[in-house]
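step=encode ok
step=design start
structure_in=
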């Protein structure tokens, strides 16, 4: 195999596909990028057993062939020569990388070791959504997906299509996010659980414009293509928690507050509880204000934020990071926080737009 191309083009492709390289595996080839030089281009692909990303680039192919090279090392190295043309070739020492007046080598594995990936199957179902809408939807929900292995399905986000809408639900056992955006599909009522990592990679692929993205589903596989980049991912199977069975419909205390003001106060409190195991922030809701307190070995914070309060007075403790994550995912000037008791889940949403909302479990305290 031998080809020549611009370093920046190769670097961009290597960085893109290396996101699908396995980081911990007993199969070294899954840590690799497979490069295939054919006709007038080169195809780079990586696959970790769940997610595959493929990107095609134009190149001057002098000798067709294919090889596997460690994805992390290759992408990191090519970034360093991205400002000049590069020549890639296979030789006795492995992969030969020529740039300027210099030449370096990397160890390789045979392309035959790389798993055989199925071609893109005919879609059984699909939905179409504006790129900017999907990018926003992912940003508003994916941070609430679980990161541990205790309940694997919670590492994904539930996507549902219904009556011209795409609904997303994510939770990790302590908080939940729901959001929606306009979408059209082959048929309504589609439900799938997509890995959070897959959604993050799709978001990175999107420029966020007004273009329409088609998301195809076949069996337990999801696929998307953006320009010369294709992504395929396995979907999770199992029963996902229903948000309509968890979100309260009635509340005893409802607070309307400046979102920016509450974020600023919570961020100051977060400075002193940084690294604290419970990351605890306390709200004392009474009159026309929220008294926000936080205590740690470093010091304490006590601030009052003006608010419109209706209903019962309440003292409630919560995880400060969860509070800030939800507030920052909202996008109106005023946020509405709704409570029932010090031990019941509470919700956060925009005052007017109702296209996303968050539910957080409070922290029980001994005080």
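sequence_out=
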């Amino acid at each position: 195999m031998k080809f020549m191309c611009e370093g920046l083009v190769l670097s961009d492709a290597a960085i893109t596909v290396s996101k699908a390289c396995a980081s911990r595996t007993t199969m070294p080839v899954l840590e690799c990028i497979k490069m295939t030089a054919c006709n007038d281009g080169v195809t780079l692909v990586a696959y970790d057993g769940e997610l595959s990303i493929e990107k095609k680039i134009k190149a001057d192919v002098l000798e067709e062939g294919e090889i596997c090279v460690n994805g992390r090392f290759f992408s990191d190295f090519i970034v360093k020569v991205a400002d000049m043309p590069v020549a890639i070739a296979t030789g006795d020492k492995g992969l030969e990388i020529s740039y300027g007046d210099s030449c370096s080598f990397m160890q390789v594995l045979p392309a035959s070791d790389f798993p055989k990936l199925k071609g893109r199957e005919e879609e059984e179902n699909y939905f179409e959504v504006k790129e900017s809408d999907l990018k926003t939807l992912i940003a508003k929900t994916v941070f609430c997906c679980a990161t541990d292995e205790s309940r694997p399905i919670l590492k994904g986000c539930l996507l549902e299509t219904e009556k011209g809408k795409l609904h997303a639900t994510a939770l990790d056992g302590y908080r939940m996010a729901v959001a929606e955006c306009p979408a059209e599909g082959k048929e309504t009522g589609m439900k799938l659980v997509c890995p959070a990592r897959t959604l993050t990679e799709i978001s990175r692929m999107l420029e966020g414009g007004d273009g329409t993205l088609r998301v195809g589903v076949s069996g337990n596989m999801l696929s998307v293509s953006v320009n010369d980049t294709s992504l395929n991912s396995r979907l999770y199977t199992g029963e996902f928690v229903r948000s309509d069975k968890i979100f309260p419909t009635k509340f005893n205390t409802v607070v309307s507050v400046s979102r920016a003001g509450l974020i600023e106060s919570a961020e100051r409190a977060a400075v002193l509880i940084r690294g604290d195991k419970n990351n605890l922030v306390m709200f004392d809701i009474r009159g026309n204000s929220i008294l926000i307190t936080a205590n740690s070995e470093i010091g304490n914070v006590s601030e009052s934020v003006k608010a419109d309060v209706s209903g019962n007075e309440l003292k409630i403790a919560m995880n400060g990071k969860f509070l800030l994550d939800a507030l920052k995912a909202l996008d109106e000037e005023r946020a509405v926080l709704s409570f029932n008791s010090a031990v019941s889940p509470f919700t956060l949403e925009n005052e007017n737009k109702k296209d996303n909302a968050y539910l957080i479990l409070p922290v029980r305290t001994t005080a």
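step=design ok
step=annotate ok -> Residues 148 and 301 are 32 Å apart (CA to CA).
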